[in-house]
Task: structure prediction
Amino acid sequence: MTIVLFILIFGVIVVGHELGHFLLAKANGITVVEFSVGMGPKLLRFKRGGTEYSLRLLPIGGACMFEGEDGLENGNGTPSKGAFPNASVWARISTVFAGPFFNFLLAFVLAMIVVGYAGSDRPVLLDVMDGYPAKGAGMRGGDLITRMNGERVYLSREIWLNTFASPGETMEVEFVRDGETHTVTLVPKYDEEEGRYLLGFQGYGESVDCKNAGIFKYSYYEVRYWLKATVKSLGMLLSGKAGKDDITGPIGMVQVIDEVKEQAQPYGIWVVLLNMINIALLLSVNLGVMNLLPLPALDGGRLVFLILEAVRGRPIPPEKEGMVHLAGFVVLMIAMVLVMFNDISRLLR
Result:
C-alpha cells in the first residue's frame, strides 16, 4: 500500500510538471513527440494526434520530448515547422518554464484542499519560557509575530523554520500586541537538555478556519512556506549546516510516506488521504524549485541557454549545448544513485 501511495503521489507530481511543458508546447505550435511518465522500458503506449503517450517501468520521473530537441525527429526524418528549434526563443522559454510553474500551480490546488479541510495557523505565541531571551525582552503569550530578521512571517511553522535554518544566530523579531508593533533583538540561549539554541518561545500557533475566502490567502501562505523551506534547506546544504543524512531520495520518501500513513491511520482514511496530499504538496514545490536550478539537464539549465540566446540574438551551437546537458544528465544519475545508496544505508542502521 505504501509503494502504491508513493507511485500515485509521484505520478501526480510528474504528470503535473510534464503537462505544463505539453500544454505550452501545443499552444506555441511545437510538436510533442512523446509524453511519458516514468523512466526505463515502456510498459504501455499509444499514439494520438502525432504524440506517443507512454508509461515506463520506473516511477521516478517523466518526460515531454519535442521534435528537434536533442536530435528527436517527427518520424519522417525531416524537421517540420513544429520542431522545437524553429519556435521563437520566447516560445521555447515559456514552454520550458511551464513545467516548474505547473508544479507550483498544482501545489496551490493541493494546498486549497488541505487548508480548506484542516484550516491553517497564525504565528501567535502561547507562552514564553522563564530565563530565556523572549521573556527577558518583554515578549509574552498572545503576541503575534510578523517578521523575523526582516522576513515576513504568516504561519506559525515559519517561526520554527527560521530558527532551525539559523541556529544560534541573533534574531530580530517584530511582533504585534494590542494593535501596536514592537521590535526586539533576541540572542538564542543554548539549552543543554534540548541540545539546541532556543529563543524561549513556549508553543505557538493559533488555528484559523479557511473555509471561506481565506482559503486562497492561506493556500498561498502554504505554498510560500514550502517554497521557503526548500530554498532554506538548499542553503543549509550548500553552507554545510546540513549533511548527506538530511537528503532523502525515492526510497527515503517511501519510508516517510509509510511512517505518516501509520501515524494517521487511527484517525481514519480521510486523515491519511489529507496527509498524503500534504506530502504531494511539499514534493511538488520541491520538484519545481529543483528543476529551476541553473544546472545542465534540468529545466533551469535549459533556460540559461535560452536566455543567453535571447540576449545574444543567436543560439548556442546545438552540439555544444547537447554535450553540456549530457554531462549534466550523467552527473544527475550518479547523484541519484548515491542518494538511493544513502537511503538504503539509513534503513540498515
Summary: The longest strand covers residues 32-48. Residues 121-208 form a domain with the Pdz3 Domain fold (CATH 2.30.42.10). The longest helix spans residues 318-348. The chain has a mean pLDDT of 88.
